[in-house]
Amino acid sequence: MRQWSTSRWVGVSVALIALHFIVLFAISNAFTTHASSAYNQNGVTDGYDQLADNLLHGHGYRFYPQTALTMMREPGFPVFLAGLGLLFGPAFTVIKIANVLMAFATAGLLALLCRRLWDDLLVSYIAPILFLLHPGVLLAECRGGLEILYGLLTTLLVLLLYKCLENGKWGSYILAGSVLGITVLVRSVPMFFPLFWGVYLLVGERRRSSAAATVRNTAIMILFMFAFLSPWIIRNYSLTKKFVPTASVMGVSAHAGQYIDTHLFSGKPWWLLDREAARERAQLATDAGFHFEDDFYYQTFYQSPDELKFSKFLLNRVVGEYRQHPLLFVKCVSLNLVNFWIAGKTWLATAINLLVQLPYLVLGFLGLRIAIRRRLGKIVAPLLLFMAYTIAVYAPILAQARYSIPLIPFVSIFAAIYLCGLLGKTSTEEQLDTTVASAGVMDDRGRIADEEDDQVLVAQSRAGKESYMDLRPLAGVEDENPNQRNDVQISFVIPAYNEQNRLPRTVLETIGWCSAQKLDYEIVIADDGSQDETLKLARLFEARDSRVRALACPHMGKGSAVRMGMLNARGRYILFMDADGATPLDETIKLLSALESGYDVAIGSRALHGESEVKVQTSIHRRIIGRVFAFFVNLFAIQGIADTQCGFKMFSHGAAMEIFSRQKTLGFAFDVEALFIARQLSLSVCEVPVNWVAQPGSKVNLVSDSIRMLWDISRIRWQHLRFKHNVSLSSRAVEMARK
Question: Deepest in the core among 20, 39, 49, 513, taking most CB within 10 A?
């Protein structure tokens, strides 16, 4: 399937919008006319309209003007409805339109999430379409429930969690915690998720950050969540003198869930069982001496503390039943796991839900299996964790099909993965094939690969097993073919993170330059867990040219990718260079000459101007920040090197193995540590002035990354306090020993 043009995707979007408005203003009206009174389409559900109406009329957050201020419902959705009413009036049409806009916003966030999870661009198109076509989403837009708003916030939250996982910065955790706080104000389900997230990071992602950093970041997330909850918590405490972070509905939900599951197969429809449970609660409240406004579902009290007392009474009653009859608890949990996906108001509605949900769930399971088979389980693990946590919260209490609507975006991702797998060669792969082939990638005989060769090579690449990577975690591991290393004069190591736009040009220029220089070379592309098509491009280069190798690294930082690339390089000399090509390849000769004259390390420098022809083009603010950073480098780590950060450094093979096997810094400050280690090993370092031109698209944030780098360099000496001087591969040391 070829990639659709922009006009075609615009057409699909317009068709989807038209479909949603037809459902909203035509089909839903007809459905409401013929549907049972148990259904509340074209209306606001669960008393949210009463709360919003009282807010608008100045009666405060309560169900009835004569009853007490309530905590029965989280405030987010009623306040949202009140805001819509204040701005546009009380017409229900406004709520419908808002739901449609939020659904399409969710689809946009879903596309961004797909780009982070999967390397096929088509998945980011198919998943939003599957989400927008789900009948449950269409129906949710036609009613005044919180499912669409909550789904939008949870999708944004998961997207931000991946951002936190990607960079580990405290600023990302502040943003995630803030969104989490807003989400909990709409529905309290994810309130305890940060604890599970922290455990997951400590167990499953311990290589990304230290335990201290994980605890700190989790604490930041929780702190900012409670910062957004604090006005509501303070308000509830002033009413009851109790800590109520969100709502007091736990006892009601637990009682309703137990009653419905206990009587589910009595032949009565769900809605009738729900009403019977409400009548039983009313009788229990009367018998316990509570005074309340008789309502068909909720008991609305005249004193706010009575809400908490009755909720606690109901919860204790339910827990007592489960303790007396453990099998009843097992039965309720088991039924709720099914009810979460298919339970409707009637048995007919449940059957329809089953027909709707089952294809999505089956496709989602098959897509998940593809991810696991491709050894990408760790990438989708955070998403699965959030889904499992959400279902686990509902399982022991109460569950029905509408509760699953906020998870439909995530199910759609896995379903899209499977559907795109059925299409065979996807649009993204075809686009990459065209890009690389049109650029003229040469085969290992130095000629341009023709179309037939391209097809064979790409087929071989895709048919090959996923263990195409030769990832040596430590130096000293022998190559499968030790003689192959001696045939390679220079290894070019290119760390790459989201470099799909710049990487092809840099690789092709390197191939062309090395061929013109008649060098025996290899190119090692170390992908730092890119979220775009960088790794796929690297694989295509690898398939077409035996001198190119692609290494897939988890996203831990540029330093980690460089380390992996250097330890896997086979050349007598190893040069690492940035993917942006800021330093011309002709400068390689200068560094190579320095190493051939006996130096162990030769580094490009933008600060030395010993040669008149050397030109450095960059902005003034970068120059200033560079000078400030150099000052701190000299203060904390090493002296006498003018420019430690130029992404153009060459090492002898022995020096590279000794240095990078000791490297600990994962971020941008790894250069400083590498040079610090070289000094500790008494390896000789030559600083060579090079031409350099700043390129657009830099991944370095001059403010936040500079702060992180300063922190990293301040720790270098401490990290290497117990340094072992056991170097034996230094070229200069070998020469001196021979003399």
Answer: 20
Could you tell me which residues are beta bridge partners of residue 686? 602
- Which stretch of 193-202, 353-362, 438-447, 566-575 has the lowest confidence by average pLDDT? 438-447
Question: What is each CA distance from 512 to 60, 471, 504, 519, 693, in whole angstroms?
Answer: 73, 27, 12, 11, 20
Residue 728, pLDDT > 50, answer: no
Q: Exposure of 25 by Cβ count < 10 A (0-12 exposed, 13-18 middle, 19+ buried)?
A: middle
Give yes or no for a contact between 533 and 121, defined as CB atoms under 8 angstroms apart: yes
Amino acid identity of residue 566, one-letter, is M
Report which of 619, 639, 612, 470 is spatially closest to residue 550, judged by C-alpha positions: 470
Instruction: Please list, residue by residue across 592-626, b when 16 or more beta carbons sit within 10 angstroms of its beta carbon and e when fewer do.
Output: bebbeeebbbbbbbbbeeeeeebebeeeeeeeeeb
Q: What is the mean pLDDT of residues 263-280?
A: 90
Bridge partners for 617 per DSSP: 693
Q: Which DSSP state fits 146? A: S
* Pairing label, strands 573-577, 648-652: antiparallel
Amino acid at 43: G
User: For the residues 419-423, what does the mean pLDDT come to?
Assistant: 80
CA distance 681 to 725: 6
Classify burial at 267, counting beta carbons within 10 Å of its beta carbon; exposed 0-12, middle 13-18, buried 19 or more: exposed
CA–CA gap between residue 551 and residue 574 (Å, rounded)? 16
How far apart are alpha carbons 444 and 548 in whole angstroms?
A: 9
Nearest to 195 by CA among 410, 378, 389: 389
- Report residue 472's pLDDT band, with 50, 70 and 90 as the boundaries: very low
The two counts, helices (H) then strands (E), for the chain are 30, 11
| Residue 439 binned pLDDT confidence (cut-offs 50, 70, 90) | very low
Q: Which of 34-38, 98-102, 186-190, 623-627 has the lowest average pLDDT?
A: 34-38
Check if the beta carbon of residue 162 is closer than 8 Å to that of residue 205: no
More confident residue, 482 or 654: 654
List the one residue out of 551, 500, 504, 503 whose CA is nearest residue 528.
551
CA angle 4, 409, 78 (to 5 degrees): 125
CB count in 10 Å sphere of residue 517 = 15
**Residue whose tokens read 């008149």:** 612
**Do 684 and 595 touch, CB atoms closer than 8 A?**
no
Q: How confident is the model at residue 430 (pLDDT cuts 50, 70, 90)?
A: very low
337 near 395, Cβ under 8 Å? yes
Helix (H) or strand (E) holding 117: helix 92-117
Separation CA 589–CA 301 (nearest Å): 84
Lowest-confidence region among 178-192, 218-232, 391-405, 681-695: 681-695
Tokens 């993917």 correspond to 579
Q: Which amino acid is at 635?
A: L
**How far is Cα 623 from Cα 618, in angstroms, rounded to an integer?**
7
Q: Name the pTM for this structure.
A: 0.62
CA distance 514 to 512: 6
Q: How far apart are CA 345 and CA 446, in angstroms?
A: 69
In the predicted model, what is the mean pLDDT of residues 128-155?
Answer: 92
Distance CA 732, CA 652 (A): 10
Q: Which tokens sit at 91?
A: 């017409």
Sequential DSSP letters for 373-419: HTT-HHHHHHHHHHHHHHHHHHTTT---GGGGGGGHHHHHHHHHHHH
The region of weakest confidence among 150-159, 178-187, 225-234, 487-496 is 487-496
What are the start-end ranges of the E strands in 542-663? 548-553, 573-577, 601-605, 616-617, 648-652
- Helical residues (DSSP H) of 118-210, grouped into ranges: 123-133, 135-141, 147-167, 170-186, 193-204
Sign of CA dihedral 569, 575, 576, 577: negative
